[in-house]
Amino acid sequence: MDDEGGISRLSAQGEIARLTPSGAANISGGHNIEFVGEGISILETFEDLFDRPDSSFPGLVKWLESLADAHLEMERRPLCVAHSSDEQRLDLLYECMLSLVVRSPMFRSRIHRGIERFNRWSTKKQYKQLVAANLKQSYSEFLQHRASRGKFMVLTPTGGEFIFGDGCYNTIYPNSQLHPPIRMLVALTPVLAVLYELPMACLVEPRIVTRIANERVIGVVNDAVQVYSRDYVFYRGIRPPIRDFFQQREHLVFSGNDPISDLVAEIPGIEFDMPW
User: What is the distance between the alpha carbons of residues 132 and 25, in angstroms, rounded to a whole number?
Assistant: First the structure.
């Protein structure tokens, strides 16, 4: 939030609106599944699946801020610094990031497109129920991975800010039988973004590092938000330039040259080339 307790929403057409954080993203009934049969109607909600990550965000952000502060206070201030952490805390960080990805309009859009391939005759209400059911299944499935062997890079800027959007960079697809390596890049605050990678092969340690984000890295992260967003991006104080790919009003993905891969390559211990 800014000094006035709000945030700014920027549309793909360049329109700006002032919002409170609670009004920035709200999908009514998006976590409800209604089962209707002969003479019976059962409403199931899975909102409680997100209770743990939602209640854990403040503590996690405070912890990540302490890691970033320790890095910035170093005399020589290296580009990357490794930190120690217990498995439970890293699992929780993974869960929080995953919860943001699957609840985004971008992920719902991926589910919707998958449903349309096989069922073009459903009503709007039926589509909403199918999206909710697939969202629950996908979240539960990817939650089983937890942090596993994954690695985290916490990006902290010395100037500038990260933006948010109705989509974020990730390689998570609903109900896919063949999953690519899991990768997520999520801005948690305007001054904290976290990159997670579950590679095919890597050294165990370090599990989490902080990296100073200069103007170029901030630009890469914010451009990725605009690639994966469709309708809106949100910012605190620094309005981002509107990119042409955001103006297409589609939830796009990187193909070919993926600039986030360059950040992943900086995480210590990740092996891109298999030794066999």
Answer: 16
